[in-house]
Amino acid sequence: MKTCVFAGTFDPVTKGHEAVVKTCLSLFDEVVIAVGVNAGKTPLFTKDERVEMVQKAFVGNDRVKVQTFDGLLVDFMKENGYEINVRGVRNVDDYKYETEMFLYNTDMYPDLKTIYIPANKDSAYISSTALRSLYSAGGDVSNYLPENITEFVKGLLKNK
User: Fold this and answer.
1) Residue 80 carries which DSSP code?
2) Which of 29, 85, 128, 141 is buried most, with the most CB atoms less than 10 Å from its CB?
3) How far apart are CA 15 and CA 31, in angstroms?
């Protein structure tokens, strides 16, 4: 069985994330969505809320698994025997950053393979950071979230 890992903070899950996972499902037997805890970031949603959000976004798809990790993605990949790391890229800046990470990661885990999936034209401009800013300014983020989690996220946001 071919499994890939798509990792991120998912704060919140966006339609862009959803599009990457759909592409992964057309290429792999299983997709592990790895929800990361990054000490350098202050997420809007807790780890448990982000996990639940991801689970709800892909409910009913038994080919999508959700796991969490602390620390380096490369360590998580190595510890679990995963070898395919999928990165969504929206623009040249993402590509540059992900290429730097790829070089570090393969130094630490030579068996690691990284695949870039470019954003589609409908989600290339969507980022979790932009959605958090939009929300904090009083904007509606509904159009940028997977349809089946919109109400769930709105409920979480009321408590923030």
Assistant:
1) H
2) 85
3) 16
Give residue-wise pLDDT tens across range 109-124. Answer: 999 999 999 999 999 9
DSSP for 91-153 reads SHHHHHHHHHHHHHHHHH-TT-EEEEEEPPTTTTT--HHHHHHHHHTT---GGGS-GGGHHHH
* Rounded-to-integer distance, Cα 157 and Cα 140, Å: 11
Rg of the chain over all Cα atoms, to the nearest angstrom: 15
What one-letter code names the amino acid at 57? A
Give the model confidence (pLDDT) of 67-114 as tens digits: 999 999 999 999 999 999 999 999 999 999 999 999 999 999 999 999
Between CA 108 and CA 90 the distance in angstroms is 26
Please tell me the distance from the alpha carbon of residue 122 to that of residue 125, in angstroms, as a whole number.
8
Burial-class residue 40 by CB neighbours within 10 Å (0-12, 13-18, 19+).
exposed
Identify the helix (H) or strand (E) that includes residue 9.
none
Residues 24 and 14 sit within 8 Å (Cβ to Cβ): no
**Whole-model pTM above 0.85?**
yes
